[in-house]
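HUMAN: You are asked to prepare a plain-text protein record giving the amino acid sequence and the backbone structure tokens, both parts labelled.

ASSISTANT:
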Amino acid sequence: MGDSNQREYLNELLIRDQQRMWEQALLDANREEACTGYQQEFATWEQTLGDGLESS
């Protein structure tokens, strides 16, 4: 009986850890995508702000 409970507990821990790692991977991917999107948007606005401006 005790072995069964220990196995169930360990399996539950493994499942939780796998889920935590998956969630972290998703968060990291979303953060990277958001950062890339921001950089692209910033570059577009930076270019737009300089359009038509000439140094005197």
In short: The chain has a mean pLDDT of 84. The longest helix spans residues 2-50. Helices lie at 2-50. The radius of gyration is 25 Å.
